[in-house]
Specification:
8 helices, seven-stranded parallel β-sheet, 261 residues, two-stranded parallel ribbon
Length: 261
């Protein structure tokens, strides 16, 4: 096959992006807008229905196709409704971006002191939520002859030193397992591991005056912080025909924070 830049186009594709209803400089919004600009119809899914509507309206105002769906990814019935709405509105699903997660809300307790209810809630959102979404949309992908799933993990999983990092490392395991099991059906499953991003949630977790920023400045190969839009190019690769031979991978987009052979 001769390479063409058209392989990055998503015309005729339908993408579900969870956690896409964030305000301003959020990663979910950047993902939804980026996929829409590449030609995909977007299902803007978020627990915050008002936020989902706002981003959907923004995409439509820019000439794209989008609908908003309020969803609780920890509830299989709510997720099934999301998939049904996508199928009714656009005929199916080709792309799933599992972006929704708990991050800035999480405490920094040592793991030995974490209440089990708190642990279970984190895993329910950050890991089981992604599985719920995959289980709901993979049947729709099969009907369309394949699809792309991208899970949002984190540089904070390398190594995991918090409940957040542990949940994201578990999501890496889900990524590789699904990639192995679904690859023969032409369903690619990959993950993006962002570094420190200047989203609203990122700044809440790591303020500008945090000592961690000084650490990153001293250790990261390039810039210690990136913008949400700087993740979109990698997402387009993983969601488009250009990435058809990429599966089971974690791609670090972090300026050279996590350097892996």
């Amino acid at each position: 096959m001769t390479f063409s830049v058209d392989q990055f186009r998503l015309s005729g594709k339908v993408a579900v992006v969870t956690g896409a209803g964030g305000r301003g400089n959020s990663i979910g919004r950047a993902y939804a807008m980026g996929l829409a600009k590449a030609g995909a119809a977007i299902v803007v899914a978020d627990l915050n229905g008002e936020g989902a509507n706002r981003v959907s309206d923004e995409i439509q105002s820019a000439g794209g196709k989008a609908i908003a769906v309020q969803v609780d990814i920890t509830d299989p019935k709510s997720v099934a409704n999301m998939a049904n709405v996508a199928a009714q509105a656009f005929g199916g699903v080709d792309i799933l971006v599992n972006n929704a997660a708990l991050m800035a809300e999480l405490s920094h307790q040592t793991i030995i002191d974490v209440p089990i209810d708190y642990w279970n809630r984190t895993m329910a959102v950050n890991v089981t939520g992604a599985l719920n979404c995959a289980q709901a949309v993979v049947p729709l992908m099969r009907k369309r002859g394949g699809g792309k799933i991208v899970n949002q993990v984190s540089g904070g999983a390398y190594p995991a030193v918090s409940i957040y990092g542990i949940s994201k490392l578990a999501l890496v395991g889900l990524t590789t397992t699904l990639a192995r099991q679904l690859g023969h059906e032409k369903i690619n499953v990959n993950a993006i591991a962002p570094g420190n991003v200047t989203s609203e949630a990122g700044r809440a977790l790591v303020p500008d005056d945090s000592p961690f920023i000084k650490f990153l400045e001293a250790t990261v190969a390039m810039r210690p912080r990136g913008e949400p839009d700087e993740l979109v190019g990698t997402l387009l690769l993983l969601c488009s025909p250009a990435g058809d031979w990429v599966t089971g991978q974690v791609i670090h987009v972090d300026g050279g924070w996590i350097l892996r052979p």
